[in-house]
Structures are given as structure tokens and as C-alpha cells.
Amino acid sequence: MLKNFWYACEFSPAVTNKPKQIVMLNQRFVLYRNSQGQVVALKDQCSHRGAALSMGWLENGCIRCPYHGWKFQADGQCIEIPSNAHRTPIPKKASVNSYPVQEKYGFVWLFYGDLLEEQYPPIPLLPEYEDSTMHPIYLEYEMKAHYTRVIENALDPAHLYAVHANSFGAGFAQDPRVEDYVVQDEDWGISAKITYKNYTKPKDGIFKSFFRPARTQLNARTSFFLPNITKIESDFGRGKMVNYAVHIPVDANTTISKRIQFRNFFTYSWADKIFVNFHHRVGLEDRVVTESQYPKLIPETLSTEVHVPADALTLAYRKLRQKYLAMGWGLQPHKSTLYNSKIDLITLR
């Protein structure tokens, strides 16, 4: 896991004036909105006896610990200890960590790291969010897999005909070859344009109606943005679809992928449920194989696993990740912070 990046940790509408626990990077955070509607992010662990602040309540823009009622400001400083006698000084250590947050592209972004503010890497651009011709849907699901494996699954162009044989991948069955492609460096990421020359109709599902010719050229661009965002753009002539996924590393064995899918065809709102269900079906197909991979974490050395030309994009991801680990931007697991924690998940939005 990497530090010193902005992490999209939750959809904006899911953060309200009720404290909400987020588990990410092997740690617990609490998010809530103050009286001005601004999002506050704190460590979800009272500095007194370690109770989860997310079980507490809000009071005048501050949060009260559910155990002894200690009151913390948005900057994490404790300003009231109910059990203390009047005018008793508050201990200097009576505070909890607070974190920079932004709201952008329908997400709440939390910065986790030790850089100065002027050194923060930027939040990646999601231009489709501002494009009125692109209609969005939102969903999420969990995998019992390390986030590096989940990211590689999203970047991998060769698994489609096998893993998704019963959905859109059936269109690759007659010609599963992946033409050689070039990986390009992007700002804080990588991308590749991949062309599938002989894509045929899927067996069923919503996409069957949009592929009339027996063989269609499918143009795709797959991108990765540090630390954990994948983007897949698909253009099949009669329409365009863009899939963003934020793969949140909960712990060493759990990843939550929060997704926004944009489309410029069949943009009726009543059709959203069809696309959500289909997207979820595809995600379940990926989950079966991704959860089976061993070791859970991608190997530290490239020679541990066998590679072929189609793996150029996932290999580029491994090298990019190793670059920032070598810079000291890696995080060590903090198992104790997740002891007895609970994750509240909504599988579909």
C-alpha cells in the first residue's frame, strides 16, 4: 500500500451529518459533515481509551466520543472532557489525527501521507464527469483479494474471452488474440490503446443489441492513475463507454471497488438498473478468479511469474508501483488498528 496520495474513499452522498466509519489502508477513519456541509476526516480512535468515534455523535460541528464524551474539533483537538473539574487543563496529547479532504467528481478524497501540502500529487482528472453527453451510474462491490491483484485484473486485456465467456467476453471467443500495443507514460500513471479487430456479438445481455455486424472493431484505451484508479474506455462505433474504478485497499485481503460508469448511448435513467446489474455480473466473474490468485500480493520481483506480450500494461503497473515503494512511499500493515472492526458495505447503489 502506498502513502502520499489522495484516496477516493467514499461517494459524496454517503457522507452525512452522521459519523461514518471508513476502513482503508489497514486503518479506521471517521467521516462526517459539519454544520456548513464540509466533510471532516479524523482517525476513528479516541486518544483516551481507543473507542471508535464513528459510534459517537455530532455537536456544534464537533464529534463526541461514545465512551466518555470527549469532544473533538474538526482539527482533531480535544476541547472538552466532561469528567474533568471546571478549568482543568486538557492534556496536550488529547487529540486525534485529522486528514485533508476534498470533494470532487462525486467522491470524498482523503490525503494520507507525510508530504507538505505543496508537494501533494494531484487528484486525477475525470473529464467525463463534466460532460453532459455522458450518463453515469454508480456501484461498488467487495473482493477478498489484495488490491494489487484487483488493479491488475482491471488492466489485463487477455482475460476477457475466458473470464467473461458468459457475458460480453463471448465476443472475443473466435479471436482472443491481443495485438501488440505500446504503453505510454501519463502524469502519475500509464495508459495503452488496444484494438480488437474481430469482436463478435455477445451471447446475451444489453450489449448484444449494439453489435449488429458479425465482426466489429472494438477500440479500447486502458489507463491507470496512482495510487489505485483504473479507467477503461471502450468505443464500438455505435456508442462509447467509460469505466472508472477506485480500488480501495481495506486490508491485505480485502478490496472495495467503487465505480462510476459513463455511457453516451441508451442514456435513459430507467435503463440504469440494466447496466448496474450487468456491471455487477461482470464484477462477480472477475471476483471468482481474482480471489483464487496466490500469492495474494503481486510478487516483488518480475521473474517470480511468467509473462507474455499481452502483459505489457500490468508489467508497467508493477514497475511504477516499485518506483514509489523504492522512494519510501510504502505503508507497513497496522494489524492492531483493525482488531474487531466492522465494515458497513452497500454492494449496489
UniProtKB/TrEMBL annotation:
One of its GO terms (molecular function) is 2 iron, 2 sulfur cluster binding. Residues 6-110 form the Rieske domain. InterPro entries: ARHD_Rieske_2Fe_2S, Cholesterol_7-desaturase, Rieske_2Fe-2S, Rieske_2Fe-2S_sf, VanA_C_cat. The keyword Oxidoreductase applies. It holds the Pfam family VanA_C. Keywords: 2Fe-2S, Iron, Iron-sulfur, Metal-binding, Oxidoreductase. This is (2Fe-2S)-binding protein.
